[in-house]
Amino acid sequence: MTMSNFSRILLFSIAMLAFRVASFAQADPIEHTWYNEAKTGKIQIYKAKDGKFYGKIVWLKEPNRDGKPKLDISNPDKARRNDPVMGLLVLKKFKKTGDGEYEDGTIYDPKNGKTYDCTMKLKGNVLDVHGYVLISLIGRSEKWTIAD
Q1: Which of 13, 40, 58, 133 registers the highest number of CB atoms within 10 A of its CB?
Q2: Residue 141: strand pairing partners
Q3: What is the pLDDT of residues 86-103, one digit of tens each?
């Protein structure tokens, strides 16, 4: 191997390493697995190909009911009531609107089968998740913490 070839290989390797580091650095700060406030579930938040953020249940403290996996029994769509709660998509279509602010999404509550408008605000390692109906002044907030 000549010095010229060695230099090219070294340069290529450094460039590839820099590209890999840059791709890891571009992950959004909410792309983590989060505990809900009661620490009864973990929700993995990720950025989808459409550029929006989604979250699915990846762990439950009590994943079973009567010895079988919990099902989404309160879903208003009767055809979905046999879907397992584990893996359920509960956060949908969030847009990043500012530094640590995410809006225009929805949150689904499998306990009651209702979907609410939702905003999320990241404050350090705490994610403030606020679900509401019609106006954001009225609703319920939870503070989620990083689980991973």
Answers
A1: 58
A2: 130
A3: 999 999 999 999 999 999
- Please, what sign has the CA dihedral across residues 107, 35, 97, 85? negative
The token pair at 7 is: 């230099």
Domain ranges in the chain are 28-146
List the CATH code of the domain at 28-146: 2.40.128.520
The structure's pTM equals 0.81
Q: Does residue 138 contact residue 132 with C-beta atoms inside 8 Å?
A: yes
Q: Which of 107-111, 119-123, 131-135 has the lowest mean pLDDT?
A: 131-135
Cα Rg of the chain, angstroms: 20
Name residue 96's beta-bridge partners.
102
Tokens of 86: 């584990």
